[in-house]
Design brief:
Blueprint lengths: L2 E7 L11 E5 L2 E6 L4 E6 L2 E9 L2 E2 L3 E5 L4 E8 L3 H6 L8 E5 L2
Parallel strand pairs: 1-8
Antiparallel strand pairs: 1-4, 2-3, 2-5, 5-6, 5-7, 8-9
Length: 102
């Protein structure tokens, strides 16, 4: 049996970084996600690293452990506040937000 990675893309405001985000698990591209979508991806049980990328912009890497049959859920969004959006041009690693879903 496999585990599942669930990724939801939404924000509380207008998303300033638009388009498709690439989903990378353990450094390998496994799909993409657009605004408002929820994507589920089967993963092997164990320790993994998740990264979301859009061109030169990316989230920070998030490590997670998932057991057989369990679901690891994350929320992501593009920059949605003007100051962060402007700063993301100088510091590309803050252009996309990724956090575990509670």
């Amino acid at each position: 049996m496999a585990a599942t990675l669930r990724l939801t893309r939404k924000t509380f405001a207008i998303e300033l970084r638009r388009g498709e985000f690439e989903i990378l698990v353990d450094g390998q591209g496994v799909g993409s996600i657009t605004y408002g979508d929820t994507v589920e991806q089967p993963v092997e049980p164990g320790h993994h690293t998740l990264l979301i990328r859009h061109g030169r912009y990316s989230s920070r890497r998030h490590s997670f452990d998932v057991a057989d049959g369990d679901v690891a859920s994350f929320l992501c969004s593009g920059a949605n506040l003007w100051p962060w959006w402007l700063v993301s041009y100088a510091v590309p690693g803050i252009g996309i937000w990724l956090r575990p879903e509670k």
